[in-house]
Amino acid sequence: MFRNPLWLRLHTKIVRYIAPYDAIAHRDSLDKAIAFVNAAEAAGQEILVAFYHSEHTPTRLPSVAQYQHDVQQFVRLFPNVHQYQSWNEANRGNVPGAFSSPSPRDAARYYRALLQVCEHCTVIGLDVLDAANIRPTLRYIAEFKRDVRRQGTAMPGIWGLHNYSDINRLESWRTRQLVRALGGQVWLTETGGLVRFGEAFPNRNGSGLTRAAKALAYLFKVTSSQPQIKRLYLYSWRGGNSRTRFDAALTNAHEQPRAGYLVVCKALHAQGCAARLARN
Fold it and tell me: Domain with 240 in it: what CATH number?
């Protein structure tokens, strides 16, 4: 991505990387993190790292002590990275046989543990996914805040939100309610237009490409109307194939531009946005 002329044309300065909390303990996970961070730093990018479940034991949540030990070693390995999230999409819930997510209480403990090992870092608070029904998300936020207060930890000044459900329905009420519930500054740490997401958002005859482009255009309008939202990170750059269940990428599997790429390019007022669009 960092060498692709299409990406260079956007002149973006921030990127996000999702790393297993125990990447330091597994050579394969660590090698991927090192490769990304090195490439991003060479491209002059400000890197936000979001910790997530282990790639080797995804259904087992770590103890606070194990989590703290592993992320401390990771932080020490990358002295130029100063922005972190304690757990990606903490409220997503458990998926049997796939991965586990922390309770609000555990999420608050991981947040505190990360603060303790990275005192001079910007540690973004709770990172949540909106979902079509946001009532469980609102409860999760409230319980997380209660547990942060109970443990005597400073309340986050920056929060993370993924608003796929809202934006891809061309709605904004979920984003507005969640931004209000989070409070403080909000970064859309993951968002984008869905080319394909299961049967809910199919890509039949290329319809998903047009839908995703419309969602991205709407995303920029919503973001500009919410003064608490200071950043947005689009997910992702390179798309999959016809068997990929989730695809919100700006380019196809061959890194050819989709309609959504042109929307982003124009929104960023980049030069030379015209390109031959991919059809998948």
Answer: 3.20.20.80
